[in-house]
Amino acid sequence: MEHTYLAELYEQYVCNLLESLRDQRRALLALILAKTEQQQRLQNFMSELHRQRFLSLTLTEADDPFTFAKLLQIACEGWLLPQDPEAKRNVELLVMEQFLTGLPDQTDDWIRCQQPATLVKAAH
């Protein structure tokens, strides 16, 4: 009888322990999910700030065309976060277009006629 009583106590202890572990696992998963969602919201917020900066940046805010191009590049990369080489090339093309759009019309026309291969060449 005492052996049965001890076995029942042990079984109850193990069941309680397992339930406690399940509760802790659920709580931990909820925290991980909340942190992931918070990180995603922060990333989205930062991306939007970079997008707004990219679209609103003007040549007058930079000291020179090279700085203007570099600031556009930083903002666009912060916005789109390119990973692979093709995405990086698309970012460079987007930055080039925004760079040329931000220049005075005569300068824009002259650079387009030169057909520079890179943003750095266009900025110099």
Topology readout:
Elements: H1 2-56, H2 65-80, H3 85-102, H4 105-114, H5 119-123
Question: Main beta sheet: strand number and arrangement?
Answer: none
Query: Termini distance?
Result: 93 Å
- Helical region count? 5
Helicity range of the residues? Answer: over 70%
In terms of DSSP E residues, the strand content is: under 5%
Any descriptors?
124 residues, mainly alpha, 2 domains, 5 helices, SCAN box domain-containing protein, SCAN_sf, SCAN_dom
Brief summary:
The protein contains five helices and no strands. It has 124 residues and is mainly alpha-helical.
Provide structural commentary.
This is SCAN box domain-containing protein. Residues 51-118 form the SCAN box domain. The chain is mainly α and 124 residues long. It folds into two domains: 1-44; 57-124. It has helices at residues 2-56, 65-80, 85-102, 105-114, 119-123. Helix 2 packs across helix 3 (85-102). It is rod-shaped and about 100 Å long. The model has no long low-confidence stretch (mean pLDDT 91).
